[in-house]
Amino acid sequence: MSNTITLLALLLLPHLFLISGAAAARPQCFWPGQAPEDAGCLSWRVMVEANNARGWRTVPEQCVGYVKGYMTRGQYLRDLAGVMEQASAYVDQAADADADGLDAWVFDIDDTCLSNLLYYEGKQFGAYDPSAFKAWASKEACPGIPPVLGLFATLLDKGFKVFLLSGRDEEALGPCTAANLEAEGFSGYERLIMRSPEHRGQSSSVFKSAMRKQLVEEGYRIRGNVGDQWSDLQGDCVGDRVFKIPNPMYFVP
Amino acid sequence: MSNTITLLALLLLPHLFLISGAAAARPQCFWPGQAPEDAGCLSWRVMVEANNARGWRTVPEQCVGYVKGYMTRGQYLRDLAGVMEQASAYVDQAADADADGLDAWVFDIDDTCLSNLLYYEGKQFGAYDPSAFKAWASKEACPGIPPVLGLFATLLDKGFKVFLLSGRDEEALGPCTAANLEAEGFSGYERLIMRSPEHRGQSSSVFKSAMRKQLVEEGYRIRGNVGDQWSDLQGDCVGDRVFKIPNPMYFVP
């Protein structure tokens, strides 16, 4: 009996769990639930979001399919919408922007305002490739991320000054980034701050800390800060409250 | 054949996946995968771990079953082990403890070293109840959390001084906490720091910042800091690196 069960289990399990290459074969267990073999990838993803896993260069090989499923089958958008709901609730209960025009929010750009999912999916979530990324960004084809645009618009309505702060190279990508943002509805912000030549080679964390510090020295009060990387949200002058947008695709130090 | 398989599957699954109670109705999607209706609870849990969801008083009503499943059916232990693996890797690549005996790590106690899962499960993950919690803690029956004990032991082996820092009331719970820790293998630490009368009423974040600052003023260098609450890991003198242990059961400001 025990052997029969074992044998039948072996026959049965692939059907019950529809474990096979194609996601189409496991409709009821895939997103928003996951396949059992994805449990370790879920652990890894949560470690990334909680800043427990740092300095990784690529998505772990066994989690590439998981990350693709996470990003494209609904859970990413669900998570993202949840974070933006938290941010909206925070804005609603916090003080309004002061009439002096110095209450500010900071937004990162890549995978905060604009999505690079199509690019990273095409690269199978592999290692960072500066020239390929530059070619992608130059196309001005990054889709805007609607729940983030919603928060952005709310903040402008309420009189906050919004600063877009990006590690993208200003000389190479300044005009195309501005055009891409505009085309996706991100207009009306106070300033687009990108990496100027003297900041090349700095980590994102060091560069962004310096830029935020400069804003504070100009008199701005950073009321909120939104980014998909912890390096957007830690360091100097991070703001009264930070919101971490999910991103299991890559890590920026 | 198909019915036989179905029947055997029903017999088999409880053993394979230890599914019981309500979960039996959705065997193929439970832990480590989740049921589709749990997707919103997964979003919420990740927001808690990433410190996007703050100030919540109880687990959302619709997520009580989800949190129970998360905590008891394997994914919590998997996540916890992952975080402790990250910590071990960090310890392995970091400098050894200096011979001056001032390299320190700080560990929280509740749901970091000692588990209160049995208590919170009994309370259906409801609102904090100070007198019931005091009665529970007084029983000295909190199980130790093995992967955390592993890191604790490694650090002692390597010559680090380990400080246990808890918001538990020292007068009420000092002796029973020390006894519970000892019984669960947490011995050899440098100091057990609990909340003395002058710190009553302070938030955990304020109290723990003050205690860590005192350690730094004594000359200790906090090399690492482990806790299940962001209030353990933010504020003053948090340490060179922090590790967030998962906890979707309660929030401490």
Automatic annotation (TrEMBL), chains A, B:
Pfam families: Acid_phosphat_B (PF03767). Keywords: Glycoprotein, Signal. SUPFAM superfamilies: HAD-like. It comes from the Eukaryota. InterPro entries: Acid_phosphat_B-like (IPR005519), Acid_phosphatase_pln (IPR010028), APS1/VSP (IPR014403), HAD-like_sf (IPR036412), HAD_sf (IPR023214). The keyword Signal applies. One of its GO terms (molecular function) is acid phosphatase activity. The keyword Signal applies. Residues 1-24 form the signal peptide. Belongs to the APS1/VSP family. This is Acid phosphatase.
